[in-house]
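haha ok so turns out i had the wrong file open the whole time. this is the CORRECT one, sorry everyone. sequence first:
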Amino acid sequence: MTTLFEKYGGFETIKNIVIDFYREILSRDSLAPYFVNVNLDKLIDHQTRFLSHLLGGPSTYQGKTLESAHLGLHISGAAFDEVASILCLVLEDAGVSEEDLKTILGVVSDARSAIVQDNGNAIPL
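then structure:
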């Protein structure tokens, strides 16, 4: 059985998706403050490995848990929803099928409780 990682072109394609994803996030005034003083090259590499792993690629991700990586960032439900919406748009632009998009966004939705630490009233740092 072909994994989503293989179906959509492996690391290079996933990396391009992640780059487009962060480019769009950083263009949003509501989200950019979360990434002040963040090493974007390192984050893009990290997210590429993480997303690749989630899509059935090689398990090369060795980062923190979702909870510990987002601890203290005061991520609101609204910010989470905006990021999920951006991911959806970027994946659609990359040619991800509707069925696969639902699968991926289901994984993202399942991660909500590990990432959102405020009830929607947080102001980005």
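Residues 10-26 form the longest helix (17 residues).
again sry for the mixup
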